[in-house]
Design goal:
- The structure holds two protein chains of two kinds.
- Helices cover 29% and strands 19% of the residues of chain A.
- Chain A has 16 helices and 24 strands.
- In chain A, the strands form eight sheets. A seven-stranded mixed β-sheet of chain A has the order 8-9-10-1-11-20-12, sandwiched between helices.
- In chain A, strand 14 and strand 15 form a beta hairpin.
- Chain A is globular and about 75 Å long.
- Chain A starts with 7 loop residues before the first helix and ends with a strand.
- The N terminus of chain A is likely disordered.
- By secondary structure, chain B is mainly α.
- Chain B folds into two domains: 76 residues, no CATH class; 177 residues, MetI-like fold (Orthogonal Bundle).
- In chain B, helix 1 runs antiparallel to helix 14 and helix 5 packs across helix 13.
- Chain B is globular, with a radius of gyration of 25 Å.
- Classes of the chains: A alpha+beta, B mainly alpha.
- At the A-B interface, helix 1, helix 6, helix 7 and helix 13 of A face helix 2, helix 3, helix 6, helix 7 and helix 13 of B.
- Chain A: Keywords: Membrane, Transmembrane, Transmembrane helix.
- Chain A: It comes from Nesterenkonia massiliensis.
- Chain A: InterPro entries: Peptide/Ni-bd, SBP_5, SBP_5_dom.
Amino acid sequence: MTERIVDPALKRRSRTYAAVGAALAVVLAVTAFLLLRPGTEQGPAAASAPGTGAEGSGGTLVYLDAEIIAAGDIRNGTWQSTTLTHNITDRLIHADPETGELEPWIAEDWEISEGGLQYTFWIRDGVSFSNGQPLDAGAVQRNLQWQAWGDPENGIDPNNTFPQVESVEADEEDQTVTVVLEEPYSPFIKILSNWASSLVADETLELSAEDQQRPENVIGSGPFVVESETYGEEIILTRRKGYSWAPASWENQGEAHLEEIHWIPVLEDSARLGSLRAGEGDLIRYLQPSEEDPLAAEGFEVIGVQGSGQTNTWVLRQSVEELQDERVRHAILSGIDREAIVEDLYTDRWSTASSIVTPDTLGYRDQSEKLTYDPERAQRLLDEAGWSEHDDDGIRVNEDGDRLTIRALIDVFDATAAPLFQLIQWQLAEIGVELELVEVDYSNVSTGYSDESIGIVRTGWPQADSWVRIRNDWHFEGSNALFLQEPDEQLNELLEQHSLVQGSEREEVVGDLQDHLLDNAYVFPVLTDSQIFALQPHVRGLSWTPEARPVFHSTWIAED
Amino acid sequence: MSRSHYILKRIGHALLVMGLTYLLVWTIIFLMPGDPVRNRLDNPQNPVPPEVAEHIIRYYELDRSGLEQLLLSVTRLFQGDLGYSLANGIPVTELLAQGIQSTFLLAALGLAATLVISAAVALTAVFAPWGPVRSAAAVIPLLSLSAPTFLVGLLLLQVFAYQLGWFSSIRDEGLKSLLLPAVNLGIAASPPITRVLIQGLSDAQRKPFVNVLRAKGLSEAAVAAHVVKNGSIPTVTLLGLTAGGLLTGSVITEVVFSRTGLGYITDQAVRAQDGPVVLGVVMLVAGIVTVFNLLTDLLYPAIDPRIEIYDKSSGRGAAQEKTREKVDS
């Protein structure tokens, strides 16, 4: 018997070939399956949408959000929680998202006394919470007291955008509520249109902080009611029967059109997008800018909504020595090409900011000229500031040989922040400024903001009254979030003044405030805050709050 | 040492492990900067004035010293109170109950998928009559080990949910909803088991008893059965560990398939630095892993009678004697 002699190396090699061949075969088979599979319909509404029909006929909207509603209490400021609040509660005042005009809602009318200390509200008749409790003057009184003073025993802090309130009285006979303030506070009426000022039933007011966090426990008078919640999985909203107290400017004056809303968090971007494409979801929030146009080309509607209020702004914090020099701050403003950022990273649903607030904000004053990209000016300013030499990396150094390095905290609230910060890092390197990017996770965001060695952080989100937040944040006696080393008296005066005066006088003050902030390059407005939604074409009648939260009261599902 | 004594000692060890785990995790959480309450109070989107913040910190008893907080936490633990989530106000026990239910179902099916995949691949790699098929099968564990779990999950969703529409990617369809994530888990968890099984089977195949069996004229199938029985011991160890691991939840699989099991809850809690929930999850997981390790140890003798819990009265010699008898028979 002859024995075949096989070279062991050859044997090993042939085994490897076989293995690689088999692996390739598997990959090819999967690819072939994907490519040659029988044509399945893709694109908008490939699957049948639940509940179809003409306006007013009901149906179910499946809303896939990018974030989970951890807590549903009305003070919770997260984007997703405030959207829920807006759809299940009402407020005394309504702010028109188009005009910003304030109109009556649960308060039929209101009157502000001479001197601005006393506010009287006339409460609309016939409104009730979903548990049957009438929303009358007494209920409003208890809500306003709870807002103004909080409930420390139950772990509830006061609404920090509220004025200092001396008293809140209710007249059951006339159905009026009278609020007396300790000092004039012109943003008060606007503040009452904000989500945090939503009206809730006594049953909710009496609960502890933990119990108020459960969405089911938030009893409001809004067009939808929380039917059930499975934490992290789904919140089901049902239409509030008999709802008939929408603000006068709303198209739909009766009950909501939709029978139900299934509010499902799908955290994985591609899973959310895939579910929309497969027709399982009707509406999704947030997609990567690179996905916007392809999705629109497939026939989905892609909407970028820009909320009214503060823009996405960088604070140039003076806790860092380098940024205490005004010339360095101005150089940063001139050294960043914001147009290129929008062009390279975003789509036309995004835009650069022209001030620290959006143009529809009271008292907006255009600051674009101070934000023009001018690298020569930036270089000149840095030379003048003593950063005239460059090291081997091209980074500027001063006469002591210190590099011009500034640490910037990557924004955790914006899903597009990482590429945005990286592009700015690259742009600033061109003028010899090294931006060191610091990354923290969501749970450590407050630690990041309190780290004084960090020179740049993001601020600015849509708000009912931006100037209140700006005063709280930037006043030297407040949070001093600009980290000024000594008080800027002019800034403090402007911040104090604006809430004490009304109308055009207030517009003038906040206009001057914007000039002052940009003239001193305390802050750098980058972009307007855009929220991107994609929806099936059969979703109609979606509307928005001024802060860009979707309102589903007029929404309906059309026949495909 | 009697068997019951041995078991009691193991349980004692397990409890010690749990106690130390609690202390360690508690200390880490306490020492870590930031927590959801302070994050809420110092949130740059909505900062709370210091005097109000003080009230709130007192409400959550975060103003107490570390030792006081630990004592409070241990006292409550013995009363069965794991506290509330600081991020969403849900009692920790309720969150864990929700998570374990979802995870248990998924883990059971995931383990089944792991077993099926591992067994199929290993048996093919060892017993397939054609060389190239054996080699190809031997490469599969490497392939599935290199494939990122989230990618495999998304691919499964892409094909079976989005393209073919056989499954819903977002709705709970009962048992059906478990299939894709279970396969995903199976693919992710199988490579080490498959490798060990292949190794075990190959080693067993080369043992002298196989020649004895063949010499006795047994069929190849019967020989293979003996080989499988002898070669799968290390696999059982690994399977026990895997089951423990699967039961503790898979963050990636649960997030991709939008299932709110323990992995998902852990992910959310860690992101929000939600101390009570993290502590609760870790304790539960420590308990599960400890129990599975114990079960694995107790399962060995059932598979291979040669392995016995060391018993002074019978001694090692007796065990060897028994082995010889078995092989001779």
